[in-house]
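Reviewer 2 asked us to include a model.

Predict the structure of this chain.
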Amino acid sequence: NKNAAFISCLDIDSGNITRLTEDRPGTVVTNPLWFDQDTIGYLKRGALYRQALQTDGAASVVFAPPVSISNVNYRANQSLLTFMAAVYPNCTLMESAAAKQRAAQRPDSAMVYDNLWARHWNEWMTPEKASVFTAPVARADEQWTVGRETSLAAMLPHTADPLTRWAVDDYAVSPSGSSLAFVVRPPTDNMTWSTNVDIYLAATGGGARPRLLTGRVGGAASAPAFSWDGQRLAWLQMETAGYEADINRIYIYTLATRETVAVAYDWDASPHALAWSRDNRALYAVVSSRGRNIVVEVDAVTGKRRELTSDGSAGAVRPVDARRVLLVHSSTEAPADIRLLDTRSCASSQLTRANQDKLQDVQLSRAEDFWFTGARGDRVHGWVVRPYAYDRRKRYPLALLMHGGPQQASTQGFSTAQWNPNMYAGAGFVTVQVNFHGSPGYGQNFTDSVRRRWGDYPYVDLMRAVDYVASRVGSVDRARMVALGGSFGGYMANWINGHTSRFAALVAHDGKFSTVSGYYGTDELWFPEWDLGKPWDAAGRVVLEQNNPERFAGRFKTPTLFVQGERDFRIPATESLGAWAMLRRRGIPARLVYFPDEDHWVTRAGNSVRWYTEVLDWITQWTNTTAPYRIRSG
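Predicted model (structure tokens):
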């Protein structure tokens, strides 16, 4: 469980890579930045360090605040640091640290909540809230001094309840360092049923009240990005209040005129990241498209678009010059590496091979497209990955991997989490992934269509996909099929259990068993309210029950493995415990794998290995499959 995160320097022209910080397991450095051409900076254990541009160079502390900081930027032209830190309301870093020490000396541990959220994702709310700060840096030879910090969000209105989740989520600073845009939810009580997220623009020198840029829009704003000349600010904007999977529009604000315009408004796609071209004429948008994450060039005035990549999964776009951009790229058969893309020819070259030595004896199969007719008569897209040492003359078990969301997608990228299709193909399964109704990348109508149809359209799509693969791809033993899913995919595993017995076994990771109890126990109420409804409302109750796996509990008969993290507040542990208890009480084979230290995901390396061990052991056992390797070491 000891990972290493280290910094290397890549020479774009020569391709040479120099490791700069130590790579010993247990040593983690993050947030690399440039202080100047010869000096880098990074965070280590919440403090900011600087180091000469050489391997294992001597590191010096630049800033060791009493509160851990994150998301650090440095602007040399202003000698300015910007960073985020979680502090008590209206407190400096030092005052917040003192307040936390006083709180630790209380004779009791009670937290009293009057407003929602009381908890979010994997943590209970505390008075400490993330804010964005600036601080001057004085450099005199080898002596660096960081001055008093200024909170740019301090002048905004605050809720009177210190436990309400009012916090800065993200920010961007202009190239000159004079302006900063930050993302924050409006400070209101009971924030769990509102998706409203705003962007404010502030002068880094402080003093003036930050300017609200998104006050007339009720949806979520995200991903602010300044143009290289600092004259314009772009961001992504959802316009439908209460809907977290609404289409993202591109908004551009001109600082001099204070005018905001939307570009490419006719684009039936939803970008999730933005970067400006070096000539300030275009934006590079990362967008889901047909099961891939691609880079699209968008003219910042006309909205005209041009696809720069077509396959795999691209992200982390960084312009180098007027013609070239760096990006991180992966595919089903290749982990992430850095590529250099020519934006005129769309040709790219791979600059790194970070896992080449680790993959020498590993077979990774390519994901193959397939299309079929799904619910509503729509064309639906999926992926199939053939098993290790595939022989078309043999019969193989099938593993159906069901993604979360439902407004997410299985993309042609390399996953380091629990749903890498090659893990199942490597164990001998024909592995199928389906981008059922609700998945992004196929037009917003396709995404929106899953509303109030959780148990309908996705189920129809999944069953038809299995039929298609079994008949067209061939080599599938229909008596040895399993279905696995996490989050919404776990919900779908429970739904399948009440509607078909065609699968030999199921796996439900952090999946909802009851849409009613799931509503009351989750942390973000806007999600079930938009997609299904409110359980005390007559119309909402009908929809919730129509899509409720628990309503069909008497029909469950398929052996199921449940996996649950205790710290998952999106899908609380009681959902998995309830479904597991029901099956055990009825004498149906079921197993619970419980991680007391994990949340909605399994992130610790040892736990991830155990997750795969339990899951692969379960599905091979119930399909009478012998994997080409030993699953359990003991």
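The two ends are 19 Å apart (CA to CA). The CA atoms of residues 155 and 272 lie 29 Å apart. We have added this to the supplementary material.
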